[in-house]
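Submission checklist for the structure archive. All mandatory fields must be present; incomplete records are returned to the submitter.

[x] Identifier: Arf-GAP with coiled-coil, ANK repeat and PH domain-containing protein
[x] Organism: Lates calcarifer
[x] Residue count: 805
[x] Sequence attached
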Amino acid sequence: MKITVDFEECLKDSPRFRATIEEVEGDVCELESKLDKLVKLCIGMIDAGKAYNAANKQFVNGIRELAQQSTRDEVIESSLTKFAESLQEMINYHTILFDQAQRSIKTQLQTFVKDDLRKFKEAKKQFDKVSEEKEAALIKNAQAPRNKQHEVEEATNILTATRKCFRHIVLDYVLQINVLQSKRRSEILKSMLSFMYAHLTFFHQGYDLFSELQPLMKQLGGQLDQLVVDAAKEKRDMEQKHSTIQQKAALQDFSNDDTKLEYNVDADNGIAMEGYLFKRASNAFKTWNRRWFSIQNNQLVYQKKFKDNPTVVVEDLRLCTVKHCEDIERRFCFEVVSPTKSCMMQADSEKLRQAWIKAVQNSIATAFRDKGDDGEKLDRKSSTSTGSLDSGGELKERSLKGESALQKVLAIPGNACCCDCGQPDPRWASINLGITLCIQCSGIHRSLGVHFSKVRSLTLDTWEPELLKLMCELGNGVINQIYEARREELGARKPQPGDPRHEVEAYIKAKYVDRRFVRQPSDEELRNKVVSLSKQEKRLSSSSEHLPPRPPPPTPKLRPGSNASGQTVKSADSGIQNSADGSREMLATTPSNNSLADADAAESPPMPMPATLPPPSPCKEVVFYEPKEYSPGLQLYWASCARSLPDMAEALAHGAEVNWVNTEDDKRTPLIMAVQGGSLVTCEFLLQNSANVNQQDAQGRGPLHHATMLGHTGQVCLFLKRGANQNAADIDEKTPLTIAVEAANADIVTLLRLAKMNEEMREAEGPYSQSGDETYQDIFQDFTHMASNDPDKLNRYQQYDPQRP
């Protein structure tokens, strides 16, 4: 009931007015209590709704996982996928409903309680106070004696002022009461009406959604009856087959016949013979492992699990021999010997051993009779298990060692003498600084720790191509311009050959640890440097747009290839054909079958390279925004994108953090910007200076994600070698492998799968196992070599487009 107070009645201050005021105050107090309770209940409902949505989302994800697991059953996969999409829509509708409840009930009513009821309470306090003052003035006026005129006048004046103040305040109080009583109706009804409309919209959306889904549900309901009948029929057939096989097994047990393996060269699936054998590993412990062996298409292969890609033991049986082994402790052993290695195996019985030996001998004889396309395999003298990626038997150059690396590094101006003391003919280098050192200075650099300097021999150590290019991009001249910029100004003496070690050591520590001679830039110089680097990156990007179009890679001339089962197969993800003959046809994903480029890539001349490095087409356009402040970290950030190693080295010398995060640009790091810039050497420089290869941006993407999305195969190879986590998922729950498969980039899919396979094999076979290491390192060396020396051969795929279906 709406309670109002009459303005004229309030001036009389009658008992009727006081009773009305008391009734209003009690009503408002109760209203406040009810509204507080309703708001709390609304908050509880919203929290429970959010918890329900979270649990419902997990349930929907479970439906999606079940659909993905049922890819072989199109009906189940498509139906569950559609159901999951519909339920996800309902979750979205629920989220909207709870948001509306929060706005209409919680926020709106809380505002009414805090604002309007607070004003009422303040007015009530003033009214109570002035009422007490008026009552006191009346009493004092009544008590004034007749014969004391000054007291009478004082009491009269006080009473007059108090009555005037009372009239003013009581009128305001009555106004506040009447406004509150009027507003409470509209506020409460408006809030609840908005909430009810939100429910109306929610149920309308749900009805429309399930109206669209209803035909599919009716169709599935009609199919269920037939599915039940088919399931019963399949059950009867399987029970009959079970009985038949059980009788056959009983007869086999009775005859004690364990030689049911037969050699069948004309088998439909190409597998002439298969069965379990024990294989002796080639590691130091010579452990024996039980594997599933098969002879198929003149090859001897084995698998640990059915889903594993077959490992080729003998690539061509025409090149091998088989013999009994009686000189070891184990029974029933035989050995298959090829030109490059031998494999020791053990059967379960003597009859089985004889059957396998006979099968291998028959396969050898059959292979020599067949003179088809496989004839050219006789010219290959290396097993596929070595992971050779060369075509035509030609060995290509791998990592550089010795004089070759020395000559390339010393040819850089300033590198012919030690960077710190000037000793001629240095034989050592600091790979993270990019300088050459004499033997004495290299020892001092080692004592600084690898976080300051990483020392490597120019003659004794192996040099990867990207590391060698890093050394050639920097050099003593560039580094000394940075680290000795203020040496002469400070009057510091540079050591000479033959100076005492302690003097040289003190100078090197002052130079690299304390960075005493580095010239710190002013704020204006730093700003100009950053802006210049950002413009340089744009010039590099824009210049690539006007380059002549790059011709597509030559179409591979595929020879009849086969996987371990002798059949040309297609990857389910990328559609790229895999070949097991070790030739350079297309990319494969098994540790024993690896090819790197097209079949005639070795014969075709390399395509002309532009004068500058070809910039990528980044997933997100790199835009320079005026930052809040300029810092060495920002210089390193843009220098990494602009591919300027000298500016990067300068930023690090000025104190830049190598893992600096740009909070104004999706929390990207210099290493991610180096990926955007497309330079393999830039990434190598940052990694040598302790950049975190797994640091993610605001989208949950690390450098490996970005390199995969941009199709930078060489960078992917580099990050995997440096321990990048290929199982990391971004905020869209996509791993690098998922992205590479969606982009159909077979090169990167191969690298990711091979790295994962190598990791799983090492974990499965123990910490001392070397299984797969030779193949893994061999293939990664080939990719590294190609990325550094012939990158055009890897630029065969477009960058990843997340919108592409």
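[x] Structure attached
Curator remark: The chain has 21 helices and 14 strands. Residues 674 and 682 are 6 Å apart (CA to CA).
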